[in-house]
């Protein structure tokens, strides 16, 4: 997966100090070897997501590479989101560039959530596996791309004020995922309270089942809308829709990769 990059024309760059956060030990070692063998990167550390301290100090670190998802961890597939939030809560991370690495570059859920979590850049995992791609990403630092389909997000009730990560965190803490699998009556007082408390975190706009604004004013999203939203937020799709082309600009990475070959 992680190919070694050529040493040609690399010493014109100043070394950067990088931390790698990746759940797969083999990928972690491969990324570390790929970066350090160039002489352009000084490895400041590698760790699994669960080993990132809540009160970590990021002095002396230029870049943190974080794997966004883990298909084998819990209900929320995007297990790297709380890791990035943990990093950003540290006052010593203000000068750190957080680069998120994903297998779901086309997912608007991934793009929205990494941006909310404080990531500066987002790269496709496969993109970094090409010759020089990983080093090129460290050098180019391409920003998180915009959403592919804002209209589809709006049909879920998502607007600029929506807080996706806080909504997912609330749902996990309150056992909302389990509750949504039970055919509960939406009129029950407990469920109304949960809908209200959930939306205090999420700030969704109430929409109908087909994504339109309801004919009558509705304060809270329905249980079905919450379920659709949480499915979108926690189970991103790997591939773009049929006929869609990759819409993020890979140019800087390709040019940088050619320069370091």
Describe, in short, the structure shown:
With 261 residues, the chain is α/β, with parallel strands linked by helices. It has helices at residues 25-36, 80-89, 108-117, 125-128, 133-140, 150-154, 164-173, 176-180, 189-202, 223-234, 251-260, and strands at residues 16-21, 41-47, 63-67, 97-102, 121-124.
Overall morphology: elongated
Residue fraction in strands: 5-15%
Structural class by SSE content: alpha/beta
Q: Specify the CATH class of the largest domain.
A: Alpha Beta
Describe the protein's architecture and organization.
By secondary structure, the chain is of the alpha/beta class. The protein folds into two domains: 16-148 and 242-260, Rossmann fold (3-Layer(aba) Sandwich); 150-234, no CATH class. 38% of the residues lie in helices and 11% in strands. Strands 2-1-3-4-5 form a five-stranded parallel sheet, with helices on both faces. Helix 5 (133-140) crosses helix 11 and helix 7 (164-173) runs antiparallel to helix 9 (189-202). It starts with 15 loop residues before the first strand and ends with a helix. The relative contact order is 0.14. The model is unreliable at 2-12 and 241-261 (pLDDT under 50).
Highlighted features:
Rossmann fold; 5-stranded parallel β-sheet; disordered N terminus; disordered C terminus
Explain the layout of strands and helices:
Elements (H helix, E strand, L loop, with lengths): L15 E6 L3 H12 L4 E7 L15 E5 L12 H10 L7 E6 L5 H10 L3 E4 H4 L4 H8 L9 H5 L9 H10 L2 H5 L8 H14 L20 H12 L16 H10 L1
Parallel strand pairs: 1-2, 1-3, 3-4, 4-5
């Amino acid at each position: 997966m992680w190919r070694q990059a050529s040493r040609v024309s690399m010493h014109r760059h100043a070394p950067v100090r990088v931390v790698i956060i990746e759940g797969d030990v083999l990928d972690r070692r491969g990324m570390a070897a790929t970066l350090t063998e160039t002489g352009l990167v000084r490895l400041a550390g590698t760790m699994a997501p669960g080993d990132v301290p809540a009160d970590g100090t990021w002095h002396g670190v230029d870049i943190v590479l974080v794997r966004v998802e883990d298909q084998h961890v819990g209900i929320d597939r995007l297990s790297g989101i709380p890791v990035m939030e943990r990093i950003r809560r540290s006052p010593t991370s203000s000068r750190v560039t957080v680069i998120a690495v994903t297998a779901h570059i086309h997912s608007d859920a991934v793009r929205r959530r990494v941006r909310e979590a404080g990531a500066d850049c987002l790269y496709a995992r496969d993109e970094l596996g090409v010759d020089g791609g990983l080093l090129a990403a460290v050098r180019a630092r391409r920003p998180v791309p915009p959403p592919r389909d804002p209209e589809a997000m709006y049909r879920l009730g998502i607007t600029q004020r929506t807080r996706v990560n806080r909504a997912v965190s609330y749902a996990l803490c309150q056992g909302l995922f389990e509750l949504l699998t039970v055919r509960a009556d939406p009129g029950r007082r407990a469920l109304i309270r949960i809908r209200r408390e959930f939306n205090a975190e999420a700030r969704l706009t109430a929409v109908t089942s087909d994504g339109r604004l309801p004919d009558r004013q509705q304060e809270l999203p329905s249980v079905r809308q919450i379920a659709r939203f949480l499915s979108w937020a926690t189970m991103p799709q790997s591939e773009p829709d049929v006929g869609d082309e990759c819409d993020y600009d890979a140019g800087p990475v390709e040019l940088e990769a050619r320069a370091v070959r």
